[in-house]
Amino acid sequence: MLKNLLEGKPLRHPIHPMLVHFPIGFLVVSFLLDLVSLGFPEVPNLVRCSFYAMLFGVVTALLAAVPGFVDYSDIRRDHAGKATATRHMTLNLMVVAIYGINLWLRSSALTDFKISLVPLLLSLIGIVLLSASGYLGGRLVYDEGIAVGRHKRKTPTPQDTLHLSTETAAKAGEAIFVSVPNAEHLRNGETLRVEIERQAMTIARIDNQLYGFQEFCTHRFGPLSEGSFHGFNVQCPWHNSCFDVRTGKVTNGPAKVDLKIFKIETRAGKVGVLLTKAHDQKT
Amino acid sequence: MRSLLDFLKGKWLGHPLHPILAHVPMAMWPGALIFDLLSQCQIGGNAMVRLSFYAIIFGLAAALVAAPTGLVDWSGIKKEKPAWKIGLYHMSLNLIVTLLFGVNLALRWQTFREASEVDRIPLLLSAVGTLILIISAYLGGRMVYEYGISVARMSKKKWRKLAAAGGANLPPE
Fold first, then answer.
1. Domains plus CATH for chain A?
2. Is the minimum CB–CB distance between A278 and chain B shorter than 8 Å?
């Protein structure tokens, strides 16, 4: 519940990217005011203005950190963007530490007309790190699609990919049966992200039935294991393409190409995926 | 022309430009309101009045730079998509907010050097401007987080590779 709140689900918009405007804007402005104080030392109060802007920036940075941690912890462990997210977080922690020291150094010289060298340098370093970090944060959204469409999903998303092999699988003629033990425990609207021999798939339970389909949307390859379900349709979190999970057919664009689907069966009391030769080809 | 459009879309940076630049007005103008309120509570004196003034100026400068990048991003959305209309509202509200803070700045021009608190009318303009700005920014965020505008636009090749490696059906290139 608290997690949903901090992820901004009631607002249908993540909270962290809303709050980060403030530290980014104010820490940059604090630096600009420092520079103005060097150029125009006759203007009063610039050093004090810069201090207030920085204080405001640091307080809002600490506020933004809370939903940021929640967002971070909800990224799948083997997600392509997880390493970027770790770097983003590490840089932010460094930035807050640097500005904490910076504030402390400045607090005893608020009546100066010109900013002194050490706090100015700290601000410069802080701005460089903050810019790098902000850029990485943006890449997380615009390249990796983190938090995009997340509010549409009602159930938790997979925290890991389940890697299975066909080596121990039962061969049934042309088809190979690979048991997926975790699938039985799925509740309605929940998904698994499974990889079997270079086939990435989502296994979802809908209306008490299990369905298997390719993990990547056929539009811009968004993660369908993080999609939402509407009747028998899975909706891609990124651009809202819909597919019928029973047939793989596109039911709503922008996607134009159907999904590859996988048959889920129960054999000898075990639930699993039936892989056929056809799955190696593009359909 | 083409290269100018690509520049405004942020292709050279691998990141759309509009959401980067939008941080500045989005931080400065609500910030100005907070500083106005603090100065009304006799906190900070002239430093607070000046800080608010500088915040409005920095916000205006960045808003003017952010506008063309937003326009280019918006022009890439098909008219029949729901995001197109949201983009139109987002843009209209932003124009109103920018005008409000422009007037706001003009009203302060004569007094910010000496005053120890912000007058009523500029304070009111900051409050109204901030309210409209928050609505507008929310709409901008919805374009990204609900409709995926600019998402996977520049990373399409990378994701295609990952999808191909995962055995997925792919659209023609």
1. 2-150 (no CATH), 158-280 (2.102.10.10)
2. no
